[in-house]
# Entry
Amino acid sequence: MTSFLAFTVVGIVTGSIYALAASGLVVTYVTSGVFNFAHGAMGMVLAFVYWELRYHHHWPAPIALVVVLLVLAPLLGATVERVLMRRLSGAPVETTLVVSLGLLLILLGGATVIWDPTKSRPFPEMFAGHTIKVAGVVVSWQQLIVVLTAVAVAALLRLLFRRTTLGVAMRAVVDNRDLADLTGMSAATVSQLSWALGTMLAALAGILLASQVSLDPFVLTFLVVNGYASAMVGRLRSLPLTFVGGLALGLLESYAIGYLSSGGASWLTRLKPSLPTVFLIGTLLLVPEARLRTAQAITARTPRIPSARAALGAAALFVLGAWVLSGQLSPGNLANAGNGVALALLMLSIVLLTGYSGQISLCQFTFAGLGAFAMGKVAGGGSPLGLVVAVLITAPLGVLVALPALRLRGLYFALFTLSFALFADNVIFQDRHVFDFGGRLLVPRLRLFGFSFAGERATFMLLVFVFAAASLALLAVRRGSLGRRLAAMRDSQAACATLGLNLTVTRLAVFTTASAMAGVAGALYGSMRSSVGAGDFVMLNSLVLLLLATVGGIATVSGALLGGAAFALFPVIQEHVPWLRALSFLGAGLGVLSLGRNPNGAIGALADSVDRFRSRLPGERRPAPVAPAALAPTAEVELAR
Amino acid sequence: MRLTRGTERDRGRRFVALAGLVIITAGCGTRLTPRQVAAQRATITGAPTAGQAAGSATAGSVGGDVGAASGAAGPSAAAGSGVTGASGAIAGNGGIGGSTGAGAPGNTASDIGVTPDAITLGNVSTLTGPVPGLFKGGAVGAQAFFAYQNSLGGVHGRKLNLIVADDRLDAGANRAATLDLLPKVFGFVGSFSTSDDGMAEALKGKAVPDAGYALSRARYQSPVNFSPQPLPPGWRTGPFRYFKEKLGDPVVTKMAIFYTDVQVSRDAARYIQTAAATVGWKFIYTRAVEPNEANFTADVVRMRNQGVQGVMSLNDPGTQARIATAMQQQQFSVKLADWGVTSYDQKFLGQAGSAAEGSLVDTQLAMYGGEDAPSVPEVALLQKWMKVVAPGFTADPYVAYSWAAARLFAQALEAAGQNPTRATVLAALQKIDDFDSNGLVPPAGPASKRAPSCFMVFGVRNGAFVRADPPTRGFICDKGPFYQMAS
# Structure
């Protein structure tokens, strides 16, 4: 019994950390409708600023706290709202996700540039040495402060949102910005206040957690991922339930450490580190049926679909150009170019899934990893059978992932796929039967009908052919009835449901196909690299993949090619131009800004320019302006069952 | 979403979109989770990372006296003919080769990368990417040794140049960089990457010498790879016998082990437990740790309940510090706190504070951070020349291993004669089977891929790392063999 009490106390302390990390996330979502992936990163940066003031410049703790929490944090939040988020009002979920991801990269990168992560920065506990004993467990004052702060934050914010005019206005702005304006309160100001408040909470969590965990940019940024699960318990709206969720997760972990077998290889022991992820999956499965949005589109307007003839011509030119180019490149550059085409092939799965049908997946690299695994393991590796098995693994797994989550929409569906990616990172890719000794797996080059693609040029051209063929197939689908069906589903699921279209089967089919495409792409990607490891397929890569596909042009195959090339090329440029590393994160900000304005990405911008140029030519008809979808009225209706 | 309103704005948007497209990908540099970062850092925790031994490593064949590995003058390789020894900056710790001045008479362009007055070598290490600077030490160590060797006149009158390529922690890039360097360099020295299976693939079937610490199974098994410290699957048993003799059965039969929950660490934890069991150790508490875990109080409660007497760790310094701090906070003390070689880091001392006091750590490197400089001349040399080639760089294990690899290669180069070819250097490397880089590392067999079994012990006293045993220099070699496992 004493042990049980001790584990309970420990669980409450850990749970309070999760709750605190999640509460700011919930506040931001409740008040802005944006699931802020950068929440942890904002807290991390402000914790570093606090360290800088407190321990580097030796400011007294109270002054440093006041400056960070009451001046800098609100300023950062208000600035982010003004510069980035305000323009996203009413924008589709994936745009807000990508923008907040971009912000995460800026902050994470900026922090690593300013504060060299290899240097030690001791961050002592507040009131170090002061402890109390609870149920046989020594609890430090700071841990006690974390618990009390988490409780106070949940209670005070509930009061704010339920009992004060400002709180009600904050929630109203999310529900209907125009209507909120009519109440006499400026929606913009209220929104800015909300972000200031959310960032204050991020800073508070960051400072309190830094001494509990460590002042490490990555650890502090991603600790909030564990908080997602507790935020989901409160369905991203209820702070008290978020607190309860945090406590439940903390207690679960503590009891698992306390009572499950220590060591050994039982699945229960292996599951222990994945508890937050499993908890998140379980919570998402219990989330009630999603509402359907009526008038919302992924892109401002549907990109022009080339005719079959034009597409064939472009594909032939692409292959020819690649052949000529490949003759000029060194083996090293060919390998880099091949990586780019392989990544573009993987991005095609996102074009189908997100660009055409409006579903967001944050686990495409996971499927790619399983494809690479098949290519490396089946028939000694490098066999065409590996490609077949890649499809046989990823397609059914796609069904398994999608089936329980199909009733979820938008953010929840995206988070479900993210949970799966995390689960794969923690469990599947950590299994020594998947990646061999040392976490690596050799993936031999493909051997086909007696011909081995061992050379760099041969493998590069193979990838070029496959990309061209997959693009043609994808465009053919887009031109056909299925493509129109997908476009309709993407533009308005409610309208489709009203017309009697069976969205469930369509969504399932698309997700499964995209999973299989990712599996094949992963098999070829692994083969191009010749060896892979778990680190090549981490969840964060899937986020970057989505981000680059969106920046390139998520609904176009040329956007995928551009995104894939960028994914592969930029590290090479960075290697040769070291100073770009410092500028790169500012560049990420530019990319984010461009997304807020141009959801069709770079290819869309290019197409617009061509249209405008043509419209200025004598005799050309001026294209009719198209209303951007984000400005179209958005409403939510419950899907009648 | 906004409509376009004017030409200026359109131009700006296009610029921003395209600039963003190109530059935003730099964010890829941050695309590792804490787990993956930990995985990369865990690769060199003293944990073997290579595959099954391809050579004739034989348990029990190392052993021997401490003095033999304690930084005596001159390299200890059998093939080290032409060694001058005393001409180095520090007496008794010589460089290699007796020639002075560049371009000795009779020198020819005998092979790729060789000219009468210089030899160009390659190094493929992780310099940028998800964990910037992760294995920069791999390049710095070789550069430092070459700068030192060149200050003595090079080898046979040829200066040693190093072309460093970055693999960005990407096996594809590692392979690509190796392929690009192949027509330019004579061989590879000191390359450090967890993705070095890319290099192994690129060198497959080619007689190109590669002296460097292999981290992947493929590179380890490569017949052209010669590691200054080959490490097949398994663990040294010496430290377990050593601590058993010092602390007794009641301690070593009630041990706990913490390890990062990544495959490399899990494998290492398995090797430790298996090897330790052969000398009577027993681990009664094992725990896989997530890189961002904050609170270890529950572990402390459970360890106390189970009567744990000693703790070992295969984690990053931050986690080690958090475990130590939790133990201190709960007033739980153990007889042995061996935090592992990764704790030899100022981060650990800074974060753990007084909780680190009394730790005892066994390791297979001299204290390259500088504590051993007065007693181990090779450490002093490394420190001196590292500051010359990379001012401000803090020594890490990769610098030390890369320095040792460069010395190994230079030794073979010297033995290969005045006009070396890749084949003659490979032949020379195949004869070097007793190498300790003048006491920087314990003796090992690069040619036969024989793992080192000697070790030393350091501790933490008054907030600083101090050598504990042997008290001045060298390694303990008489406590037990390297216990090799199948996988």
Q: What stands out?
A: Residues 397-415 of chain B form the longest helix (19 residues). Chain B touches chain A through 101 residues (CB under 8 Å).
